[in-house]
Amino acid sequence: MTESGKPILYSYFRSSCSWRVRIALALKSIDYETVPINLIKDGGQQFSEEFQALNPMQQVPALKIDGITIGQSLAIIEYLEETRPTPRLLPQDPKRRAQVRVISDVIASGIQPLQNLSVLKQVGQENQLTWAQKVIHSGFNALEQILRSTAGKYCVGDEVSMADLCLVPQVANAERFKVDLTPYPTISRINKTLLALEAFQVSHPCRQPDTPPELRA
Amino acid sequence: MQQVPALKIDGITIGQSLAIIEYLEETRPTPRLLPQDPKRRAQVRVISDVIASGIQPLQNLSVLKQVGQENQLTWAQKVIHSGFNALEQILRSTAGKYCVGDEVSMADLCLVPQVANAERFKVDLTPYPTISRINKTLLALEAFQVSHPCRQPDTPPELRA
């Protein structure tokens, strides 16, 4: 923690995983400091010895809070949920909680890791766009189907949940990779509704301390 | 998602292994698979997510198909080494007898199958003594034995224990 006692978030403005946690912190009105980790500069600041000691996975986000450092965005969000339970990010009913976790895991295990920076590097520059689009289409096909039975105003019913925190950043990734979203009307509708909420706006990549000037809102 | 596992239980069907396990934990809470303390619960989830998001999806069947047959072994080994390097470091501060302290948790349920994957891809486990030790201890437990790939209804005869 800083001398002020605030949690510290290690984040990259454009990292979709970091954005998930930024939304959670905003929704729960948790004041925090950002330490930007640039994933491209200097060969990738996440690979520094200093950062590796903080997060052995050498990835963002990582959150320093309550005397511990947690990596893995969903583990961070579940910790915030358990220690700062209002407002809720997971429903009370176990079956609906399972729906939230399924959607979150589809995105956080089934889509994002397959199109993250380190995988794209290995795929080779000429193949990157095709690879990323394939991965996202595959995952969004499944997600659209799932959401048709779980969604109300948001991913699961009418309350914002961890699933929504995962959805919006993944749609932003899809747009960045020029994925055609026409086959996914439910995903698009929910994304649009969520982007109008304040927590999704203040946490947006275009409004971060490390947002480059040309991308700043 | 067109993937296994999926569990049909209590009138619903759940995919995604960790979502299934968390549902089982919430509806059938004993014996525990997650500690009571939120910080230790976070450690369990971090380790589980490192494996379930950071390693396994990158070396699963559909990704390997796309990588191409001549590259598959190298790709899988690279992915697993990368993840196990991080995991070994994490476990050095969280592990007791098992991944987090001395109680079996969801993290252990993720570790053993991933080590089996590593062995299948001929990953050298010498750099990972903590992972190896915990894996060995867990494999001696009955739940890890009855669930083993070599003892399933669909295990091919030549691989059956």
From TrEMBL, chain A:
EC number: 2.5.1.18, 5.2.1.2
Gene3D superfamilies for this protein: 1.20.1050.10, Glutaredoxin
BP term (GO), one: glutathione metabolic process
Domain GST C-terminal span(s) in chain numbering: 93-213
Compartment(s) of residence: Cytoplasm
SUPFAM superfamilies: GST C-terminal domain-like, Thioredoxin-like
Domain of life assignment: Eukaryota
Keyword Isomerase listed: yes
Reactions catalysed according to its record: RX + glutathione = an S-substituted glutathione + a halide anion + H(+); 4-maleylacetoacetate = 4-fumarylacetoacetate
The entry's keywords: Cytoplasm, Isomerase, Phenylalanine catabolism, Transferase, Tyrosine catabolism
Cofactor: glutathione
Name of this chain's protein: Maleylacetoacetate isomerase
Species annotation: Odobenus rosmarus divergens (Pacific walrus)
Organism ancestry: Eukaryota, Metazoa, Chordata, Craniata, Vertebrata
UniProtKB/TrEMBL annotation, chain B:
GO CC annotations on file: mitochondrion
NCBIfam families registered for this protein in UniProt: maiA
UniProt keywords, alphabetically: Isomerase, Phenylalanine catabolism, Tyrosine catabolism
Stated family: Belongs to the GST superfamily. Zeta family.
Gene: GSTZ1
Domain GST N-terminal: 1-32
GO biological process, one term: L-phenylalanine catabolic process
Enzyme category, top tier: isomerase
Domain of life: Eukaryota
Keyword Endoplasmic reticulum part of the UniProt annotation: no
Necessary cofactors: glutathione
PANTHER family per record: MALEYLACETOACETATE ISOMERASE (PTHR42673)
Catalytic activity: 4-maleylacetoacetate = 4-fumarylacetoacetate
Entry protein name: maleylacetoacetate isomerase
Listed pathway(s): Amino-acid degradation; L-phenylalanine degradation; acetoacetate and fumarate from L-phenylalanine: step 5/6
Record organism: Odobenus rosmarus divergens (Pacific walrus)
EC number: 5.2.1.2
GO molecular function terms attached to this record: glutathione transferase activity; maleylacetoacetate isomerase activity
Domain spans labelled GST C-terminal: 37-157
